[in-house]
Specification:
Layout (H helix, E strand, L loop, with lengths): L14 E3 L2 E3 L6 E5 L7 H14 L3 E5 L3 H16 L6 E5 L3 H7 L1 H6 L2 E4 L7 H17 L4 E6 L5 H12 L7 H22 L7 E6 L3 H14 L5 E2 L5 E2 H17 L5 E2 L3 E2 L8 H12 L8 E4 L10 H23 L7 E5 L5 H7 L2 E4 L9 E5 L2 E6 L4 H16 L16
Parallel strand pairs: 3-4, 3-11, 4-5, 5-6, 6-7, 7-8, 9-11, 10-12, 13-14, 14-15
Antiparallel strand pairs: 1-2, 15-16, 16-17
Helix pairs in contact: 1-2, 3-5, 6-7, 7-8, 8-9, 9-10
C-alpha cells in the first residue's frame, strides 16, 4: 500500500540557503549537526561529508571560539573539494557578534546563521548584539534561523510576562506563560530582524522543546501566527529507541498536519555510534509519511512460530544493506529507484501477497514448508529460487530490475527480461 502525503501544506515563504530551498513549494528538508570540534577543520569536514552523503541536505556546525570561526572557510573548501555542495549553517551563542566581526571570511563562508535570542545577550546588550548579527546577515545576504529553545529562553522576556501575569485577576499557570514566552521570543525577534533590514524571505523560525505534547502545541500556534518556514526538532530527544520514538511521535503529528519545512532529529549518539543515524531517522519519518522517498523500501515480516529459521531475517538485512550501499550510484544513474519497494517475507501466510504488491519480492519457506522461494516481479511470479545461493541470486534479480525499470536515457543499458536462473 502506498503512503499518502498530507493533503495540505501550510503556506510559507521560500527561503534560499545556498543550493537548498526551505519552505514555499519545496519538499521538507532533512538536516543535521556535527559534534566535532569545529576548530579541527579536517575532522569537521570529514563528518560534514559523512552526514551529507547519508542524506543531510544542510549541516550545522558549532561556531563558538576564535579558532572555530577561523576554521570555517577551510571546512567549506575541504567539503567542496570532496565534490559536495552542502550548505553550512553556523550555530552561534553568546559571542557570535564578536566572532563575525573578527572573522569576516567565516561570515562569508557560511550559508546561514542560527541565532538563539535567549542567549545572544542581556538587556541593552541583547538588542545591540542581536542587531550586529542581523547586520552581518544583511551585509553578506545570509538567511537566519531564529531558534528559540525552552532550555535557554530569554529570561528578561519571561520575567516581564510573569510580572504582567501576576497582575491579572486570573493568572495563568507557569507552563502557559512559558509557552507564551517561547512564541513571543521567536516572533518579536523576527519582527526586529526585519526592522533592521533583513528581508522577510531570509528568516526561518524554530521553537524547540523536549516534551512531545508541548512541542506539538507550540508549533501549531506558531504556524498559525506567521508564514515563516519552520524548522522542526524535539530538543534533547535522548538516546536510542527513546529518542527515535519521541522525535517520531512529535514530528509525525506536525508533518501530517502540513506543519514543518525542515527537520532535525536530535539524537544523543550511543558510545561509538554513528552521527548519521539521526539523518536516516529523519528520512524514514518523511518516507513513512509518504512525503519524500530516499531509498527503496524493504518490506519484511516480523517473524513468528512459522519462521523458526532466521534465514529471512538475514536476507532482509542483506537486501537493506545492499540497497543502501547502491544508492549513492543509483541516485544519479537510476532516477526514481528510491520509490521502489522490495519484499522479503518468511512464510506462505502473507509472503506471496506482500511479494506481489511490491515491485519485486521473495517469499521464503517457513517452518515445514517446501524449501523453495518464489520471486514475484510487478505482481507476477517469475522464478523460483532454491538452494544455498538464494541471497546472491535474489540480489542479482533486484539489480536487474533496477537496471530495466529505472535507468535514465543517458545511462540506458541493454534491454533484457527477468527470467529463471
Amino acid at each position: 500500500m502506498t503512503s499518502v502525503a498530507p493533503k495540505h501544506r501550510r503556506k510559507s515563504v521560500a527561503v534560499h540557503i545556498g543550493s537548498v530551498t526551505v519552505g514555499g513549494d519545496a519538499p521538507v528538508v532533512v538536516q543535521s549537526m556535527t559534534n566535532t570540534d569545529t576548530a579541527d577543520a579536517l575532522r569537521t569536514a570529514i563528518q560534514v561529508a559523512e552526514l551529507a552523503r547519508a542524506g543531510s541536505e544542510m549541516v550545522r556546525i558549532t561556531v563558538n571560539t576564535e579558532e572555530a570561526a577561523a576554521a570555517v572557510p577551510e571546512i567549506r573548501e575541504r567539503v567542496e573539494a570532496m565534490g559536495l555542495d552542502v550548505p553550512l549553517i553556523g550555530d552561534f551563542h553568546f559571542n557570535g557578534h564578536k566572532l563575525l566581526t573578527k572573522h569576516p571570511a567565516c561570515a562569508e563562508a557560511l550559508a546561514k546563521y542560527r541565532i538563539n535570542p535567549g542567549n545572544v545577550g542581556r538587556g541593552k546588550k541583547r538588542d545591540e548584539q542581536f542587531a550586529q548579527m542581523i547586520e552581518f546577515a544583511c551585509r553578506y545576504d545570509k538567511p537566519v534561523r531564529i531558534g528559540v529553545n525552552w532550555g535557554s529562553l530569554d529570561q528578561d522576556l519571561l520575567a516581564r510576562l510573569l510580572d504582567e501575569n501576576a497582575q491579572q485577576s486570573q493568572p495563568k499557570a507557569l507552563e502557559e506563560i512559558t509557552h507564551d514566552a517561547l512564541l513571543e521570543s521567536a516572533l518579536s525577534s523576527a519582527r526586529r530582524a526585519e526592522e533592521l533590514g533583513l528581508e522577510h524571505d531570509r528568516i526561518i523560525l524554530s521553537c524547540k522543546l523536549s516534551g512531545v505534547q508541548d512541542l506539538i502545541r507550540a508549533y501549531r500556534d506558531l504556524a498559525a501566527l506567521c508564514d515563516y518556514p519552520l524548522h522542526l526538532g524535539l530538543t534533547e530527544a535522548g538516546m536510542g529507541t527513546k529518542g527515535i520514538v519521541a522525535s517520531t511521535a512529535a514530528l509525525s503529528v506536525l508533518l501530517d498536519e502540513g506543519i514543518g519545512d525542515t527537520i532535525r532529529i536530535s539524537l544523543t549518539p550511543e558510545p561509538g555510534g554513528q552521527r548519521t543515524q539521526e539523518v536516516l531517522v529523519g528520512q524514514e519519518i518523511l518516507q513513512s509519511l509518504g512525503m519524500r522517498s530516499f531509498t527503496p523500501r524493504v518490506i519484511a515480516c516480523p517473524g513468528c512460530g512459522r519462521t523458526s529459521s532466521d534465514y529471512f531475517q538475514h536476507l532482509a538485512s542483506e537486501i537493506q544493506e545492499f540497497l543502501v550501499a547502491q544508492m549513492p550510484v543509483w541516485r544519479a544513474t537510476h532516477p526514481g529507484v528510491e520509490d521502489m519497494s522490495v519484499a522479503v517475507m518468511g512464510c506462505v501466510v502473507n509472503g506471496p501477497g506482500e511479494s506481489r504488491n511490491a515491485n519485486i519480492g521473495i517469499s521464503l519457506p517457513g517452518s515445514g514448508e517446501t524449501p523453495v522461494a518464489p520471486v514475484y516481479v510487478d505482481g507476477e511470479k517469475t522464478v523460483t529460487l532454491k538452494g544455498d545461493t538464494i541471497a546472491a541470486e535474489f540480489k542479482a534479480l533486484v539489480k536487474q530490475y533496477v537496471q530495466e525499470h529505472y535507468t535514465s536515457p543517458e545511462h540506458n543499458a541493454a534491454p533484457g527480461t527477468i527470467s529463471a536462473l
